[in-house]
C-alpha cells in the first residue's frame, strides 16, 4: 500500500450504501468506465449464507461455525461468467435468489464471519486500483481508501427497483409493500448490528440517487476519482 505524507493510502474506490440504493450498478459501471477491477463484497456474504444454509449450519458463534469457515475455499471473479465459487461450486446465480438476502443479512452480523471475509477482501485489493462495494468498505475494510462514496436513495425508490429486479428474475408473487417492509427491516438490521454497521465514513461523499440519472452519476464520480488519482500519482 503506498505511503503518502506518512499515511498509508489504499488504491480502493470504496462504495458503500444500503441495498437498492443503486450502488451495485454504480460500482459496476464506474469500474467499467475506469477499466479497473470490480469487487462485490455482498456477493461474498450471500455465497457464505447460501452454503451455510445448504449445510444446515446453525448461524451462531462457536466451534461449528469456525469449522465451517475453515472448510471454505472462495474464488472471486473467476471469469466473465463466474463471479463467485465456494469449494468449486459456482454460486453466481444462486446468490441472487430472494431468500438468500435475508440469510446474508443474518450471517453478516456474526463477528467471525465478518473477520473471515475482511481478510479475504483485503487480500483481493493489491497494487492496482479497484472498486470495492459493500456496507463497511470505507469505515472498516479500507478506512484508508483514497476515494469513498456513500450511495443512498429513498425506501420507496429502492423497493421499486428491487421489485423490478425480482420480476425480471421470474418472481411474480412478492408485492411492493412486502418489499418495502423487507428493505426497512434490512436497513435497521444492517445499521444497528454491533460489528461493522452500515454507516457513512466521515470522509465519504454522500450521494442520493433518487432523482439522478446513471449517466450523470458515473460522469460525476468518474471525474472525482480521476482528480484524486492524479493528485496522488496513481495510474488510471
Ligand atoms: O449488497 P448485498 O445486498 O448483496 O449484501 C447482502 C448482505 O450482506 C446484506 O444484508 C448486507 C451484508 N453485507 C455486509 O454486511 N457487509 C458488506 N460489506 C457487504 C454486504
Topology diagram in text:
Blueprint: E1 3-4, E2 7-8, E3 10-16, H1 23-34, E4 37-40, H2 41-54, H3 63-70, E5 74-76, E6 84-86, E7 89-90, H4 98-107, H5 111-124, E8 130-134, H6 137-141, E9 145-152, H7 155-168, H8 176-192, E10 205-208, H9 214-232
Parallel strand pairs: 3-8, 3-9, 4-8, 9-10
Antiparallel strand pairs: 1-2, 5-6, 6-7
The structure holds 2'-deoxycytidine-5'-monophosphate (DC).
2'-deoxycytidine-5'-monophosphate (DC) is lined by residues 19, 41-42, 45-46, 101, 104-105, 108, 134-136, 186, 190.
**Average pLDDT over all residues:** 92
The helix-and-strand class reads: alpha/beta
Bound molecules: 2'-deoxycytidine-5'-monophosphate
CA(first)-CA(last) distance: 16 Å
Cα gyration radius (Å): 18 Å
Domain unit count: 1
List keywords for this structure.
10 strands; five-stranded parallel β-sheet; Rossmann fold; 48% helix; 236 residues; alpha/beta; single chain; binds 2'-deoxycytidine-5'-monophosphate
Model description:
The chain is an alpha/beta fold and 236 residues long. The protein has one domain (11-226): 3-Layer(aba) Sandwich (Rossmann fold). The chain is built from 9 helices and 10 strands. The chain has helices at residues 23-34, 41-54, 63-70, 98-107, 111-124, 137-141, 155-168, 176-192, 214-232; strands spanning 3-4, 7-8, 10-16, 37-40, 74-76, 84-86, 89-90, 130-134, 145-152, 205-208. The strands form 3 sheets. Strands 4-8-3-9-10 form a 5-stranded parallel β-sheet. Strands 5-6-7 form a 3-stranded antiparallel β-sheet, covered by helices on one side. A two-stranded antiparallel ribbon has the order 1-2. Helix 1 (23-34) crosses helix 9 and helix 2 packs across helix 4 (98-107). The mean pLDDT is 92. The site of 2'-deoxycytidine-5'-monophosphate has 14 residues, from helix 2, helix 4 and helix 8. 2'-deoxycytidine-5'-monophosphate binds at residues 19, 41-42, 45-46, 101, 104-105, 108, 134-136, 186, 190.
Amino acid at each position: 500500500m503506498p505511503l503518502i505524507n506518512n499515511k498509508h493510502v489504499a488504491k480502493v474506490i470504496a462504495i458503500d450504501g444500503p441495498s437498492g440504493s443503486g450502488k451495485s450498478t454504480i460500482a459496476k459501471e464506474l469500474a467499467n468506465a475506469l477499466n479497473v477491477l470490480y469487487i462485490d463484497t455482498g456477493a461474498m456474504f450471500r455465497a457464505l449464507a447460501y452454503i451455510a444454509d445448504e449445510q444446515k449450519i446453525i448461524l451462531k458463534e462457536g466451534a461449528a461455525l469456525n469449522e465451517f469457515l475453515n472448510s471454505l475455499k472462495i474464488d472471486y471473479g473467476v471469469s466473465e461468467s463466474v463471479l463467485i465459487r465456494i469449494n468449486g461450486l459456482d454460486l453466481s446465480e444462486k446468490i441472487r435468489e430472494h431468500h438468500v438476502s435475508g440469510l446474508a443479512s443474518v450471517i453478516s452480523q456474526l463477528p467471525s464471519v465478518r473477520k473471515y471475509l475482511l481478510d479475504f477482501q483485503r487480500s483481493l485489493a493489491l497494487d492496482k486500483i479497484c472498486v470495492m462495494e459493500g456496507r463497511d468498505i470505507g469505515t472498516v475494510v479500507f478506512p484508508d481508501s483514497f476515494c469513498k462514496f456513500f450511495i443512498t436513495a429513498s425506501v420507496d425508490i429502492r423497493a421499486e427497483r428491487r421489485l423490478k429486479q425480482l420480476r425480471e428474475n421470474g418472481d411474480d408473487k412478492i408485492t411492493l409493500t412486502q418489499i418495502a417492509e423487507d428493505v426497512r427491516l434490512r436497513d435497521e438490521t444492517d445499521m444497528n448490528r454491533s460489528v461493522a454497521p452500515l454507516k457513512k465514513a466521515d470522509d465519504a461523499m454522500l450521494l442520493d440517487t433518487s432523482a439522478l440519472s446513471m449517466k450523470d452519476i458515473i460522469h460525476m464520480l468518474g471525474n472525482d476519482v480521476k482528480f484524486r488519482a492524479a493528485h496522488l500519482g496513481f495510474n488510471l
